[in-house]
Amino acid sequence: MTADRDQLRDDATRALLDARTRSVAARPTLVARSDLHDALGLRVAGERFAIAAHAVRAVAALTRLTALPHAPAAVAGLIARGGEIIPAFHLRVVLGLPLGALPEYGRVVLMGEGADAVALVVDAVEHLGAIEPDTLRPPPEDVVPTVRSLLRGVDPRGIPLIDHEALLASPRLIVEIPIPREASPRSVTTRGARQEEPPPR
Asked: pTM of the predicted model, to two decimals?
């Protein structure tokens, strides 16, 4: 009799566990049915782009920017934040847009950590809400390949979504800055800008 009760208890426990297993297995379909990302809007050169909010460390006012001599147009300079010296780039140049004067109320968007930290100079930052990757369409055909590789697609509002991983890995954020021969030999290396000694005469 005891064995029968134990068997019934085991059967009931097994049935309960099976039911729980089926319930848990069914839940991910509810969570994974969409891949929504909260996005920030970046305004540059009169254009609007989006980037995943979780990829952005901070947004700060464009205040003190130290210029780098002999730097290419994409390099805006260096900024100091929280004890870090971070290379700053004009996002408009990185995205193939013409370089203009720095906006009076511009912003810097901080991304990456440690040696990979980088700042992007933009005109303004705004909240865009959620973007569903399934709704993205390919960028227009007239976008140059080097810029096209930095975009995940265009949302239904016509806003290009920047691929933040591709952006951080882009060679456009790694530049070499030559120092003229008359300058004193020195070498400065950062994540985004590298200055090298001139070759010996």
From this structure: 0.69
